[in-house]
Amino acid sequence: MALAQACVIGLARGNEPATPPSPDTPRLSASALSTMSRGEAMVEAWRLRDEGRWLETLAICEALLQRDPADDDAYRLRVLALADLGASHRAWELYQARPHLFEPVIARRLQADRVARMIVWGGLHPVSPESRLVEMQAAQAALAGLTAKLAATDDAAVSRQRMANDELIALNTLGQHEAVSERYRQVVADGGELPAYVGAAVGDSLLSARHPELAVDALEATLRDDPEAHEARILLVYAYVESERFDDAYALMESLQASEAPWLTRAGARQEYPNWRRYDVDVTRVLVDSFAHALADAQRRAESLVSVGAMNAHLHQTLGSVYLQRGWGERGLERHRVAKTLDPDDAAPRVGEVQALLDLDRTAEARRLLAELIALHPENLHAQRAQQRWERRQGWQVNYESAWGRNTDDGTADTAVASPLGSRDSRHELRVASPLFNDRWRLTAHVLEANADFEGERVHHRLFGAGLSYVHDRLQWGLEAAVPTDDYDDGTTVGTWGQWRFSDVLAGRASVYLNEPLASLQARRAGISADAARVRLDYTPTEFTTVQAGLEHLRYEDGNRRDSASVLFDQRLTSRPHFLLNGFGGVQAGRGSREDAPYFNPTRDASLELGLRADHIAWRRYDRHFRHRLAVSAVNYWQEGFGAEWYPQVRYEHEWQLAAGRQIGYGVGYARPVYDGVREDRVSFDLRVAWGE
């Protein structure tokens, strides 16, 4: 609809009269017309047309043709008046009946007007989704035919340029955004300019094709020619956002809000005053806030709008998108389904519904709805990106993690370090999951290798394992087994884990392992393995807050029973488009049943941690980004028999996202922990690679 309006603007400007008629100018009466001769009536008709009074011109022509249907002059002027009024299709029909009455330049103008009108129709709301592009495809075919017939006349270049501009609008509606982008680049390279009425269509295609800087140039040029081009102003806000120019986006938003009167409703105003331009501004503000990590503000604005426009499908869809960004899959799904019910032909609610179902692991249901979406809207880029996410989710999943550490205690040689981690340690793990089958199951395989040096002896632990995982709706479940290949333990590891999502904000997880693969390497050095059981609750009311509470029980072969409990939190303190500041920390406590275990096993211990983490997005381009994080915390560790000590922890990391589902991260850390009253220095490095959904 918006692009159709842009086309209408272009047509209106092409037909604008040099001198608009005055509303006080008297109309020619039927009795006066009946007393005029044919010649006098034709002179009057031409005069009225020159003044832009096309309806009165048309009335005279109709009267003359009633007198004499063979009057070619009246017939010709009637066609021209219809074209002036914008009745392009009717003018073209009448032209075809008597083409010999029109000069070639007029004939080309009539045909171009008809094609332009077809483009307008092609952008209007369709009768059905299946017929959405039929009229626009017909318009494009007619435009191509007209271009091919253009003769080498004086006005041919002008005609070709106008048709090229009209075709940009058609290509935009047909979703051929790269073609629009290439043509825009060629116009810029040739030193040309586009008329303002096609600026919004070109800007929309440049954004859809992910060329935001070019979109900024095109839309700013449009607004220089037509500062009141509303759609171009809205699109420029998005172009600034997608160019990561949030300050410019917010400045333009403030200007737009100040320039548009508020939308007044009957409940709060003396009279109802709908302002659809202000509606566009308000919805755009919601989306800009969501892109800038101001999701709480976005939610508040969206819910306020929905409370007024409860039957507006677009508002429900917008609110549903905000809910999904906040991690509320169930609430987001509900809103998108309301929007689809209100407007079943719109692609956006369907895209949101598929995204919500994928977030909720309702894969089979998402499969069916995605097939319907692609069948109805094959050219829609958001639908195509939902399909790409689906394909990533269905395919192979690969995760690799490595970590290295070095520990030294004050004034002690490396080989004498008594740290439970050893003087040097490393851990490497590769996990691979097969493509999803039956929309729920994956086969898994993993390799784990852990090493640690204790007083000159290296403990080496390697596992090869395989398993099966299941995910559907609220339930995730997995089973795996692994065989060691080291000299310290020959017991097979068998484990199972499960997770249940109680709601959008609460999930629980439990696991049980025989021959726990992450048990102390100090204990493994002594030939002692352990079984483990863990439970955890994750509470995430919003993306700003996360609280985890967990219990762990380790049952060692030497009879030692070690229990621990923890409560961890992470709280967003500051949100900016490219900067996030979080506070984090937690409380942990544990106890062991043996005092003489040949590994680090405090009879009682506890710790308190408080810290800050700064997260800066240094560069971002749609699905790709580079961000770095610095976390600093202070830990107070208490161990029975040794008292309490404070020590610092610092970690700095980089994260590169090379594409959607393709991520590399690495980081370095430093800490000064205390074990058995001895302070140590620990330096660590880690690497992470993720490939898949």
TrEMBL record:
<dbReference type="InterPro" id="IPR011990">
    <property type="entry name" value="TPR-like_helical_dom_sf"/>
</dbReference>
<dbReference type="InterPro" id="IPR023870">
    <property type="entry name" value="PGA_export_porin_PgaA"/>
</dbReference>
<dbReference type="Pfam" id="PF21197">
    <property type="entry name" value="PgaA_barrel"/>
</dbReference>
<protein>
    <submittedName>
        <fullName>Poly-beta-1,6 N-acetyl-D-glucosamine export porin PgaA</fullName>
    </submittedName>
</protein>
<dbReference type="Pfam" id="PF14559">
    <property type="entry name" value="TPR_19"/>
</dbReference>
<dbReference type="InterPro" id="IPR049003">
    <property type="entry name" value="PgaA_barrel"/>
</dbReference>
<feature type="domain" description="PgaA membrane beta barrel">
    <location>
        <begin position="419"/>
        <end position="687"/>
    </location>
</feature>
